[in-house]
Amino acid sequence: QWTPALTIRTALISLQALLCAPEPKDPQDAEVAKQYLTNKPLFEQTAKSWTKTYAKDIAEIRKDKVKKLMDMGFTEAQSQAALEKAGWNEETAITSLLGAQCTAVSYTHLTLPTILLVQHQV
Questions:
Q1: d(Cα 44, Cα 24) in Å, to the nearest integer?
Q2: CA distances to 29, 46, 69 from 64, in Å
Q3: What is the spatial distance between Cα 66 and Cα 62, in angstroms, rounded to a whole number?
Q4: Which of 2, 49, 66, 93 could bridge across to 82 with cysteines, CB 3.0–4.6 Å?
Q5: CA 53 – CA 83 distance, rounded (Å)
Q6: DSSP letter string, the chain
C-alpha cells in the first residue's frame, strides 16, 4: 500500500545508495559518467570544485551577499538590514537601498562607480 512516508523513505535510501556506489554504466548524466570512467582524477577535481562553489553553508552565502553590497559602497549594517528586510534577495535589497525611484532597473550586474553615479543622481 502506497504512503507518502514510504515513498520519501525509499527515495532517500536510493539516493544514499547512489552516493555511496555510483553507477557510471547507468548514469543520470552521460558526460559526468564518461569522465568518471575515463579520467577519474579530473572527475574528482571537478567534483571538489563544484562542491566548493555550490555547496555552501547558508551563513557563508549570506556573508557573501553582505560583502557584495558593501563592495557597492554600503555599510555592513545597511547591507545586513536591507538583505534581512528583503528576505536575502540581493536585487530587492539594492533597490531598497537606492530608493524607490530606482525600482525599474536591475542593479545586481552594475559596478561600484555606476552604482555611485546612480545614487548621486537620485
A1: 14
A2: 30, 22, 9
A3: 6
A4: 93
A5: 21
A6: ---HHHHHHHHHHHHHHHHHS--TTS-SSHHHHHHHHH-HHHHHHHHHHHHHHH---HHHHHHHHHHHHHTTT--HHHHHHHHHHTTT-HHHHHHHHH-GGGTTS--TT--HHHHHHHHHH-
Q: Quick check: 76 and 67 in contact, CB under 8 A?
A: no
pTM (two decimals): 0.46
- Give pLDDT tens digits for 27-72: 888 999 999 999 999 999 999 999 888 888 889 899 999 999 999 9
What are the grid coordinates assigned to 113, written together?
A: 562607480
What's the mean per-residue pLDDT of the chain?
Answer: 81
